[in-house]
Each structure stands twice: as structure tokens, then as C-alpha cells.
Amino acid sequence: MPIVTTAILTFIILVGIGVIVGLLFNRRGRNWLGRQVADATGAGDVTYSLVGIAGSFMGFHIGVILGILPSILLYVLAILGAAVTIWLWRGR
To answer: CA angle, 58 as apex, 28 and 62 as ends, to 5°?
Structure first.
């Protein structure tokens, strides 16, 4: 049972990381005009959160593939993965 509990907790943490990074990029990463255009086109909080969730999963699993032992470093890679994915998604 501990493996299932750890997997569920990791899933929830990665979703939380993705949502938080997505919201930070959407609210703080653009100027006022950019937020107005994004709201008009529909690229708002939900879209940024979903892209952040995808990036956090990619960053976490890249760390697992590289053989990083389960530690806080995997979650740091999840944060970096979410940030880089959103940054690339925005076209920079």
C-alpha cells in the first residue's frame, strides 16, 4: 500500500506544481496588454495551468530517466520542466 500512496501523493504534488507555475507565468510573466490579449483569445489561467502540469510531469520523469534518486531534486526538476515548457510554449 505505501507504493500506491506515494504514487498518488507524487501525482498530486506534480499537478499542484504545474498549476502554480502556470498561474505565476500567466499572472506575473506578462504585461497588462499581454494579459488583455490572452483573455480575449482564451489563453488564460486554465491553459497555462494545463501546460504547466504537462511540463511538471515531463521534468519529473526526465529526472527519473536520468537516474536521479527520489529526492527533492526531482520536484525541482518538475518546477524547471513546467517553467521551460511554458516559456517554450509562449514562443520565446
So the answer is: 125
Structural contact between residues 30 and 48, judged by C-beta atoms closer than 8 angstroms: no
pLDDT digits (tens, 9 = 90+) for 44-56: 788 889 999 999 9
Give the predicted TM-score (pTM) of the model: 0.81
Q: Would you tell me how many other CB atoms lie within 10 Å of the CB of residue 74?
A: 20
How many contiguous H segments (helices) and E segments (strands) does the chain have? 4, 0
Q: Are the beta carbons of 79 and 21 closer than 8 angstroms?
A: yes
Q: How far apart, in whole angstroms, are the C-alpha atoms of residue 57 and residue 21?
A: 12
